[in-house]
Input
Amino acid sequence: MLAARKKGFGMFNDLIVELDPPPNRQGAGTGTKEKHLTEAAVMLAYGMHLLRTVPELRKIELFPDGEHGKRFKIANWLSTHGFTLQESWGKTTYCGNWTGEAGSIIVASIPGHGDVVAETGQGMIIAECKGGIVNTKQSGPTSRLRRGLCEAVGLLMARPKSGRQVAVVPYTESTLKLAKKLISRARDAAIEIALVDEKGRVFDISPIEDGVEKALLATS
Output
């Protein structure tokens, strides 16, 4: 049930934010640091995936809120990966028109648009994204990851059916298991599910044979 677009594999070493665990999660098997794949990082990884894999797509739009910008240095990440701020909007360091060899990324803090939006010749692509801690099996963080996937699917269900609608969350054992359970019903509502790992690689969940899934996992 896990399909990966190999052409779209992105290999990034700077999507993870490592933080000390709070006292209640120390010694929970995460090592010395918790690895946070934040919502903004998931948005950036999925946006780059679309620019690489959707034919003729040259522009995407990202709509982070202020809290996303506090948790992940969006402007620094875009600059590091070859994007230049051509036009700045507002007082934030990251809102504006960023251009690079891969295309154009519009970043704006406007609610109600979805997290990642792209307009293609075949219609719109709208993604709702959630983040989380990817290196712990403790109940609290894993529960938030699963809840994030359910919330992303629910937000898309509240939208009119149009184009492609994708729920995107971090790739973990728990989100993969839940995605397998949700995918058939989500597809009935014209909603896709994609998982992003800590290197920015995107895996599309689809109802395929387990043997194929194992082969794909072996390549990651």
Residues 2-219 form one domain. The chain has one domain: 2-219.
